[in-house]
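Following up on my earlier thread - several people asked me to post the actual chain instead of describing it. Fair enough. Here it is, all 226 residues.
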Amino acid sequence: MRMRKMKNLDSRMERCAALRIAEPAQLKGNWRSLKPDATALWVEVGCGKGKFTAETAAANPDVLMIAVERCREAMVVAMEKAQSMNLTNVFYIDMDVANIEEIFDREEIDRLFINFPDPWPRKKNAKRRLTHRGFLDKYCRVVKTGGEFHFKTDNAPLFEFSVEEFAACGLEVRNLTRDLHANGIVGITTGYEEKFHALGTPINRCEVVCKPFVLPQEERKAEIEE
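Reply from S.P.:
Thanks for posting it. Predicted structure:
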């Protein structure tokens, strides 16, 4: 997510320090220590300004919610939102999701959310798409077997690409729709989602069941090298 640089970013980040995990790798395998009574660990990658994050955490107070966002300007807005709602079950990490295996242990996550990621439309950038098989391989290592990731996008070509990638990896897809809000708003929305829906843009959504799968050795090697 691109935002203008904030002159007061550091001071705003400091005021939200209680919600930010500065050294996430130190919690690998022990995230539930942040909320020992949590019934599940949910992670959102690319939370943006955090509307979906905060509302999901508020609606599920028994769940530990971790939001990942590499743009600090967006993340501070998300943290301020959660702070204003007095949420105690959500924390934030400023990092690239490509490093997800460095901070979460094998099968540590119960559910993952991928909402409106960059479509990277040029073919040469396909590996950057968060639903490319290289990323799917990572998700299926840190999300428990039988756990899910929920994917939403307004970009039809990205959605079709993603569905093909899920099939190529042998992953089960559930509740697939190419017009989620056709009969009215369904579920918690992101800020972008509200704007797209208001413009009449159909929202694509599906749930994917995670399971271990073997990425071809040459592909796995390429992902590691990149």
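The chain has eight helices and seven strands. That should answer part of your original question.
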